[in-house]
Structure formats: structure tokens, C-alpha cells
Amino acid sequence: MTTPGFEMKGRVEAVLVASNFGSILSMPCPRIQMIRGHGVRGDSHAGVRFADAREKALFSFGFSKGIEIANHREFSAVSVEELAEVAKAMNLPKPIPYGCLGENLVLSGIQKLSELPSGTMLFFRRDEQIRTAVLAVWAENMPCKGPGEVIQKNFPEIPGLARLFPKAAIGKRGIVGSIYASGNIQEGDTVVAKIPRQRIYKLE
User: Fold this and answer.
1) pTM of the predicted model, to two decimals?
2) Which of 29, 124, 160, 184 is deepest in the core (most CB within 10 A)?
3) Mean pLDDT of the chain
4) Which residues lie below 8 Å from residue 2, measured CB to CB, with a gap of 6+?
């Protein structure tokens, strides 16, 4: 079965950089510079990546930790709509502040952002000006306890949030991917997600 490709339009609500290597927290800034083959300038996730405990497929094949691998987390993006769903699931009295998930982009208007398939291309423009930055989606960003710990600091009156976050954010944690073409992105830009044709792979 094959599904046709299509596109959706949304808006960049915030751009952020996680410059503190000791914290997942990312901070808003006027614009971010995307560098192909590297990542977001100044971000703690940019640059060379080495295999760690998450690379189960590599280890099952016989590889060991520490080898240099592709960095498919050169950027991360979350959805305003999905953040609202996570906040509701956690019974938070107000929205999750931007940056708690270590994201580089906060987007609105892209339905089911976390479910965008691998190979989806993200293009950006401001009015009639086309941004040169182009991003390629790799995968859903799987939730972990780290963002929950940051959220907990923002809501100290509500106990247990760090433990609650991973379950509440399943399927709503956003996406990660690589930078296809270098350029700048800033708040207020239009984002166009071009979803590729999808073929379901199965053996008869």
C-alpha cells in the first residue's frame, strides 16, 4: 500500500539553543543558525556523536560503545499543540515553558508533528523571502526523564513530575533530524512540511 505525498504549513513560534552542556534546558534567541553536517550553532547536541547506550541495534550486531556515528539529532522540534496535550496529561495549571524539552524549534500548525515520517523535509520562509535552511526529519524524539526534571523545577508545588513526563509525552515529544541545507531560522517564519510518499513495507 502506498500513500501519496502532501504538504502542511505552520509557523515557527520560537527558536532556541541549548548552550549549557550540563543541562537539557534550551534558551530562546532571536534566530538560530543551522549548519549542515554539524547542527545548530552553539547547541550542545551539535557536532560529532559517539555510540552510547541507545544504539541497541549496533550493539546487537557486535559493535561497541564509543564509535563515531551519524548525528541524526542535529536539531529537535516540538509542537505547541502536542505540548498542550502533554501539559494536560500531567495536570499542569499552565503551559510547559518553551525550552524545557531542550528543543531548537517550537512549531504550530503541523498536525501530529511527532508522527511525521522519516524523510519529511521542512522548508522555511518569511513573507516572500525563502530561508536557505532546510531540515530533514529522521525520527520521533523518544521521551526520557530529563525534560521532566526541568518541568519539575518550573512547578515545584506539584510532586512527581519528572517520573510522570515520559509516559505523558509518548507520541508527543516532537521530532529530531539532520540539517539538509545551512541557513538561519527565526520566530515568525512560515514552515512548510513536505511529507513524502509512504510505502508500507511488509512480507507476503
Assistant:
1) 0.94
2) 124
3) 94
4) 197, 198, 199, 200
